[in-house]
Design brief:
The structure holds two protein chains of two kinds. By secondary structure, chain A is α+β, with helices and mostly antiparallel strands. Chain A contains 19 helices and 19 strands. Helix content of chain A is 47%, strand content 21%. The chains are: A alpha+beta, B mainly beta.
Amino acid sequence: MSKSSLTGTQEEANGGVFSADVSAEELKVFIEEADEQIALLDRDLVRLETEADDPELIQEIFRATHTMKGSSAMLGYPRMSELAHSMESLLDGLRSGKTSVSAEIVDSLLYGLDILKVLRDSLVSPERIPADIGPAVARLESAAEMAASVGGRPADREGTTAAVRRPNGDGNEKKAATDGEQTTSPVPDHWTQHIPQSVRVDVKTLDSLMNMVEELVIDRSRISQINRVLESKYAGDELVRDLSQTSSHVIKVINELQQDIMQVRMVPIGTLFNSFPRLVRDLAQRQGKKVEFTMEGLETELDRSIIEQIRDPLIHLLRNAVDHGVEDPESRLGAGKPPIALVRLSAFQEGGHIVISMEDDGKGIDVNAVKHKALAKGLISADEVARLSMADAVNLVFMPGFSTVEKATDVSGRGVGLDVVKTNIEKLSGSVVTESRPGEGTKFMIVLPLTLAVIQGLLVSASGTVYVMPLASVTETILMEQHEILTVRGRHVIRLRNNVIPLVSLDGAPGLGLSRADRGDKYFIVVARDGERSIGVVVDELMEQQEFVVKPLGKFLVDIRGIAGATILGDGQVGLILDVPALIKMATPRIE
Amino acid sequence: MVKETKRMTEQQLVLFDLATEHYAIDSMNVREIIRMQSITKIPGAPASVEGVINLRGKVTPVMDLRKRLGLVVGKESKETRIVVVEVEGQDVGLIVDGVSEVLRIPVSVIEPTSTIVAAEEADYILGVAKLETKLVILLDIGRLLVGGEKRMPLGMEKAGSQAVSAAPVA
């Protein structure tokens, strides 16, 4: 089935022995491992361009290809192992100092990696035709030959090879480093080395554990509710006291269980970021731009489901930065800047939130152009433009229908604007703002909750329905008299310490159902804030404050404005979680 | 082989009433039939969406099939039921005026719709089954729900099952 081997590796011969049949389980483990190595290569090969003299980096890349080679040979995938072998041979030259890193070497390695990815995909979906490794192998070999004829810096390199061995390095590594020859052992070395301290868990299992814990959390509220009733009804009863003690212990255990399962769902954001250097590199290359891309805070942990959903918005912003943000080298030199542009992506935790910032030192956003465009497109009135502060004006770029580039390019654009980024981030209960200085650069700041699964909320009721206000956005609750409620152009507002705050009601009717004043002439108002703007939500009743498990409304009920999700209440009823940013938008039309 | 032919010639249906008419959906789509329960209304939802219920810990949308089909919405009675169907992996409850029976009928008694219903209805009406005592309108519930209400927006596709390490990677 395989083409004749170009390099005649041993795996080819051994492959047949092992490949008798690969069980689904083995394949799964292999794919998971391959994905890890591919992600690592994606990140490190790009770093190789700028950090060519880092022996540890070369060693890491070498080890990843070596692992790929070994495990693919073990399962009988000769194309994969042969290709990995070619990459490894080229890398071995680098490692031993016989050759030094060149653009062609990096390009050929990246090309090889792309083919590896295709091969990996064809294992998962057998209907795909596996890629031909011929051209990649040939390119890798010619890169090796070319480099060898140019010659490396042997004296220089030999000194560093020793440093490659980590102090706690394993025996096989040393062997590989001292042998001078390429190791072609068909059995991956590390498989026999140690029992890992972590286990792989299928995400489905995690989700089902999470669901069970969620149900326990709902029961927890119910138990404490019943407990309170019992205690007041049968004060002093011994059985009730016993029950109280037991239930408070159960509640404590549920709390711990919940915390642990949340922790398990946390994934370092590096798993997402790792594919970005390659993306930025390719984009910059295609645009003829020079970009130095740095990442920080890769270890910052974030809930798995957020990581999955933040991917597209981040890619969009990165593309935006490379495509529209930074200039080509000539323009940069013309503007008195260094020819290589900087793009910096960083993540860190701040209180109960994760902040992701993306900065570039490009040409910045022209605030006046933004204003004119918003005006020309009728997104905003001349009045509103005049009132906007500089900071607010920059954020007009997030308005639906706004796009600063006339012509959609093949990189970003395509009719999808920053408004989609904003919407997607808001779906995650996050927010995004931008700051920009003309000529100096642009910065996007994304603030996300640590987890989406549980929120602290205030329970309120209005028109018979129970709602949850996310506590993070509640600033205060106030009681207002009828005469304190004013109208501005037909809209109800209140004055609160010199601020005019628009009111919204939750009965779904346009305007306020303010006629139902059955509490004398008083209204409960929950003041909620998103960034700079506040609204007052008129409710009938303020209930308790507790933790709520967030559940989606399901795909048939997306885009219900003002509702972010649902939760199961202690009495088994469904409560609706309010989407404060959306409510604010609804209350303050046309101003984003 | 015998089984195969049987499936070809017969269809198992869940029959229910809406206003004065009789409707049916393929039993393959039906997960369960439950009694009416208290429904949390959602402000701003499409008119035919009654709200959401708690179905064993899952928040499940409930739609009034009478409103969706433009029929008279009568009072809730002892017979009123919620038929829970699965469409595209999502459970949806449908309010009906009563479930009459589960029936296996030969495909041959089903009349194609072209001659009876309007073109736009033909999209979600599969046919009319001529039973001895009544005519039963066969609904394609997937088309009715997915085609009629808001379609699933882009960007909602779930990523395939991946694995994460259960312990932080040291």
